[in-house]
Structure formats: structure tokens, C-alpha cells
Amino acid sequence: MRGLGVLVVGCLIFLYSIPAIAQDTTGRMMVRTSDADAAPLPGVTVTIASPSLIGGARTGVTDERGEALFLTLGPGSYEVSAALRGFATQERTEVRVRLGSLTALNLAMPEATFAGEIEVFAETPVIDPQQIGIEQVFDADYIEKTAIGTWQRFATSPGEQSPGAVDQQFFGSIDSENAWFLDGIEVTQPSWGGLTNGAANFGIDAYDEIEVKTGGYEAEYGRALGGVTSIVMKSGGNEFSGSLDVRYQPDAFQESGVHFDPDLQESMNLAIEATLGGPIIRDRLWFFLSYYYGESESTPEGAPTTRRGKVKAPKAKLTWQISEAWRGVATYFGSEFSYENFLSSRSIMPEATPYMRREPDHLALETTGMLSDKAMWTIRGGLDRQPFDTGPMRGELEPIAHLNFATGVLSNNFFYQGWNDIDRVQAATDLTWFLSGERTTHELKAGLAVTDTGATMATCSTGTPGGVRCSADVGGLVFYDFQIAENDIPYQMIEEFTAGPVDLSSTLWSGFVQDAWRPTADLTVKAGLRYDTVRYDI
Question: Are 508 and 532 contacting, i.e. CB atoms less than 8 angstroms apart?
Fold first, then answer.
């Protein structure tokens, strides 16, 4: 049990060492225009439109290199048109913009043979000329169909299908070297590298795109030893839409096997998810709502108790086009986990099973704006709250747990009690400058982030006099039995003292600077520096 306490403290210390910095929540598009001789064509009016684009269609004019750049685009399919007097107008449909990527669309514009000539292409192959890392993006259509025949789908499911991934371990890294972001705010569960307490894992139909980076990513991401997964929640739109997904899996749906008999290992799973999104003010203010409810029951073979779990996971998002140059996003996601008879097994008696409760909440805020046509500024903030509580199902802390060395049976009471309350506040900002010359361009980006974390935690034995919760002045007792000729024989009683509730805090500062240099239209060179420093108060 002393080792368990050290492990919990170690996990919290690891929590404070996680670098958090702003992540991409949108995509970009660069439209290149040229004449019949492949010479850059400046002065072309380019218009893009999409149901994913709040604020309505956008228009830009190509520069001396024949390029027009569109920033902060919601992931989705776009229609593009390019027009210049004397040249045939070009239209493209199904131009895909992906999370965290630059979509480059090349348009050759021959001279028009008659006024109003338009060339329309439905199939539009595009590339990302700035991608240097190993990454994969899963869009909403893919997410909807992921493991559609199973009782449950999780946000981790697409990442497990990425190249080089085995059970969320990427190219030999371990789980705790991963990083997870939802709408730009870090939600990594520190002790094992998954999503924080599962809060964001449930309700996959709420997500628009999931981007998984597994190597070669830029300095802004940090923690470059494992995979970096960025999730963007749906935003709604100018049309109302929603979904309902119900999955139920009783024992009757399970087939017997050589090592499995559903009659001896009873189980049940229920998962219900509903989503709804649409406009509050068309082209100005969108909303999206999602709610997930899940139940599960399982009775291991020979166990005297049934493990029961319930999950409630609400999500909400507002997207506001504040002005032509500024946009704001607010995202909330949370959950309630409650488990009864959490460690149900044949070796744990009914009076010795534990419960576990978690109620994490997360709030993310983002504002992005164009300071000029050459500078973009993003500000993000996040509040992350993670309460946790566990103890005996019987609700009494005074009875002393009995563990039989010979049989491994735990009886009379659960041996452990504990709780923690973790609050993490994140703030990040980054500024991007787009510098262009006659032949080359630079995309300079610098960012700064701070994460302030505070926690109160306690872990100790039960069997405390008077049923006292963890206290530095009161020890907990555990009784160890032995068995001779089927008789339980008292063997050893251990009294353990702990420090009682412990307060921990940390402040983490992270900063980076990087450049994406294009010496030619089809060559990108990226370089960057990153610095992280953390101060602990334990």
C-alpha cells in the first residue's frame, strides 16, 4: 500500500511536467493561379465557400506569385472559383480542407475564347506542400463509420488505425509519451497518456475531425516522443442537423468459445448518444450540443458481485464570428463516472468491494483574429477540473480489511481509501507573420503558454479508528490471515500512517519559435526551437 501511495504521488508529479501549448483547431487553403505557360497569374479574384465556413463566403486576390491564402478555415469540403478578365473562370468543388493542414490548389487559367467562359471540375486533387511530419487526419465521415457494428466507439479508435500504432503506442513509444488536445486545450491523462479520465473519449459523433501526428512535427507541439492527437468538436452550421445512436449488447448477442462462456461471465452494455447543431444567428453564431449516456454490467466467473458502471458525458460548443477579422469559440465537455463493485472478482467478497467516482469538467476558450493581412493572433485559455474519490462500497472506513495470504481472498472491508481534487488552468497565445518576397515566403510563428496546476490528494488505508478519513494523526489497519486445514489463522496486522491530505502545485512555462520557409513553390524548409521550464511546490 505504501507503494500505491508513492505511485499516486509520482503520477501527480508527472502531471505537472506536461508541456501545454496551443494546437491547430482549423485548416488553411492556398490557391495558386497560372496562365497557359505556367507563369504566375496575379490579380485573380478567388472566392471560397463551404457549409463549414462561418461568416459566409470569403474572397481574396492573388499576389505577384499568383497565390491567395485563406486562414482559419473549418474542416470540410469547399467550393472554389477563380476569375480574371480575359481568362476562363475556373470552378472547383469538393476541395477538402483538413485539420492542421494546408490545402494547396493549383489552377491553370487559359485565355477565354468567349465572354463568360467557365471551366468546372468536380474532382479536385489537392496536396499539402508544407507537410513534413508523419500524420493522418480522420474526417467526420470516417469517424461516423468507425467500428459501426460494435457496441461502442471511442475517440481513441481512429488513432489506433494510424500507421505505426499499436494500442496507442507509436513507433515504439509508450502511452505516457502521448499528448491529447481537444479544441486547442490539452486533455492528456498524465499517468498513462490517454484522454483525461475518459471525459473526451465518450461520444465520438460529436467530433468533426481527429488529427494524429506520429513523428516529425514542429516545435509548437512539444512532447515529441509519442503521438500527438488533436480533436475538433463539431460547430453546428447554418442548417439544423443532429443524430441519434443507440447500441445495446446483452449476453444473447455473444457467442460461446473455447475460453469464454457468456452464461458464466454475464455482461451487458448500453450506449446512447444524441447530437444537435445549428444557427443561433446565421453566419454569425452557431451552436452544437452532444450528450452521451452509457451503462455496463459484468460479472466475472465465480464472482459474488456484479461490476456496474454509468457514464454521462455532455458537450457543448459556441462559434461566434465576432467581426470580419475576429472569431471566438467556447467549448465545454465533461463527464460523470460512477462504478460500483469496481474490482469485482471471485477473490473479493461482497463486503470488500470498492466504488470509484470521477467528475472531470473542461472549458476551453479561443479567439483568433487577423491584425493585418500579414499577421494572425490566437489566444487560448482552458480550465480543467478533475475530482476523484474511491473507497469501500459498504461506506464504512472503520472495519479492518482481511487479506488471506494462502487464498488471496479479500474480506471484511476494502483496504484502501483516497481522493484528489486537481485544478489546471491553461493560457496560451501565438502570433504568426506571413512574410513574402518576389520568389520566397516565410511563415514565422512564435508562441507562449503557461499552465498552473494545483491539487489536494490523499491516499491511505481503511481500518481507521472511528472511521476517520485520511489524516496524519490517525493510522489505518490491515489484517493478514493465513490458512491451515481450511481454517483462517491470524498472521499479521499492519498499522500504516500517512501524511494525510497533501497539497501540490506547479507552474509550467512553454515557449517556441519556428519558421516555414518556401524558397520555391514546391519546397518547404521548417526549423524551430522550443523551451519548457516547470517549478514544483510539493
Answer: yes
